[in-house]
Amino acid sequence: MNYRHAFHAGNHADVLKHVVLLALLDALRRKEAPFFVLDTHAGRGRYALAEGDARKTGEADQGILRLSGAAKLPEAVEAYLRAVAAHNPPGRLQTYPGSPLLIASALRAQDRLAACELQPQEAEALRTLFAGDARVAVHARDGYEAVGALLPPRAGNTAFARGLVLIDPPYEAQDAEYPRVLQALRDALRLWPQAMLAVWYPIKQGRSLRPFLRKASGLAAKTVLATELHIRPDDSPLRLNGSGMLLVNPPWRIEQSLATATAALASALGEAGHRAETTWLKQETA
Ligand SMILES: C[S@@+](CC[C@H](N)C(=O)[O-])C[C@H]1O[C@@H](n2cnc3c(N)ncnc32)[C@H](O)[C@@H]1O
Question: Which positions of the chain have pLDDT values less than 50?
Fold first, then answer.
């Protein structure tokens, strides 16, 4: 396993993923009842933008840093910028919060996060980050196996009726990753059918994604939505031309705000041929 998220922190894929993640958390926070989040591929939780691996690639320059200079943005994107700014000194962007840190910052006293990370050094960094937070459990383990082991979630006497599973794998061997993602989705739906499930996926050549999206549309859930940010035409198998979030059981009426947010992201971060697309893969019929 060679993947290190530090090289990519704050890039356009993180921007899309974390805008959508925060919109899902916002929907969960609207009700008082506790919620549980399982982050299957958590990373180390916090990344330095101004030095080290992130500086070597400069990917954040075309992502969060470019966005910070944009004019007024839709509320979902502004909420994301505020969430990132909360982990930085006023007016400066030195640190990028990864998914477990963004999730932990959105938890209330009654909510819980389980964050899984397979790479020992990354898991250790994550453990240190959350050492003082009893709401967060860090698991140095395979996130796909954790779906079977940790769901349906319980904490003491609390069984969680609501929550979210975030699946954000590295896709180092793409052919191997998609079947595992689909199996994890099937397992999660069987064990915790009422949960929202969110999967990040890379877009290189759009047509190679069709089998995955077709299989996702056949999941045993009432609704499946895909929201995509294309930075440039999806015609090269070598470049990350964009990315998408597959949402199973998304919150009621979220599609319009995601369509607005991704359209603004495409204009702010895109090159020639950029576009945004939010599509129902499976929709409840009246
Ligand atoms: C794309 S990064 C995660 C980024 C993070 N979700 C975020 O948004 O900040 C993928 C992470 O998954 C880890 N990983 C790879 N295979 C894994 C597995 N089977 N189970 C858990 N973690 C895994 C990698 O070490 C890497 O840190």
Answer: none
